[in-house]
Amino acid sequence: MNYEVKVDVSPIYELLSSFMVYISKKWIRNLDIGPEWIGEVSGKLPPEVTSALGPAAAWPFDDYDVLYAWAIHRANGDTVRAFLDCLHETPAEVLYEAASPYLPSLTVKEAERIRDSYTPLLELWYEHYFKHEEPAIIPLIEEDAEEKCMLLTKMEPHSLVEYASGGLVVEDVPGLETIVLFPTVHNRPINVYCFYRKMMLIQYPVDVPEEQEDEPPTCLLRMTHALADPQRLRLLRYAAEKPRSLDDMMRDLNQTQELLKHHLMILRVAGLLRIHLGSYNTEKFSIRPDGAAELQMFLESYIRL
């Protein structure tokens, strides 16, 4: 595990994350904001904006890897406005040179397409949605990033990655030199990761204060929902023996890939699984030991034992 960890924070990441969630609707049923968020936001956007954003749903999902690479290597400050102005003004060749060391398959033509296609849509997203959310989000991500920076001086890099992400274990990935951690709100409670050449990006979820103290906390509801299904309990027991791959599970549990991915996602967002990331972006899953302890803690705290 010979890599360094950096903690980064900027509303630029949250702009891209919220845009990606709205456009792709990826993982939306497993996110705290829920599917209803899509309808709520669409209802507030002018029809011409909704119409302009629509075609982006069919664009390659890998485009976001390029956008995040540009965000990581921003050179003109942390503000969204400065980032969007930079995309407007920077030649495609320069943007290509910034991202190509991490994305060797990127071409100048692709960099130009992504810049020209996404910049006007990100402008619309910022003006009609994100800038209204930004003031509430910035204190949350800045406070969390400050905590993680402090922990970076006290914890081993791999331990901080697992703690921040709630279960990502980055093992022996050939050539990996740097992991960039950044906090996000819209993707809660999912950690999203992306491998680049020599670098890995991990979006980890920020803890958001509960609005109503008398209601069961969201984290407790996630856990009890995950444990309410006998198949998921059996899956946890199976994964407790040793890290298991999806192929292992399909073979030994006699379940389809689609069904297993569904159960794994629910257990993952509940904080009950560790994801071991190894060479060639392989994934294995094991039970997260802290999960059971956290379940007891949240349950006892809520019912006031």
From TrEMBL:
Keyword DNA repair: no
Cited CDD domains: HTH_ARSR
Alphabetical UniProt keywords: DNA-binding
Source domain of life: Bacteria
Pfam families the UniProt entry points to: HTH_5 (PF01022)
Keyword DNA-binding part of the UniProt annotation: yes
SMART domains: HTH_ARSR
Coiled coil regions in record: none
Span of domain HTH arsR-type: 222-300
Annotated signal sequence range: none
Family matches, as Gene3D superfamilies: Winged helix-like DNA-binding domain superfamily/Winged helix DNA-binding domain (1.10.10.10)
Protein name: HTH arsR-type domain-containing protein
Origin species: Paenibacillus favisporus
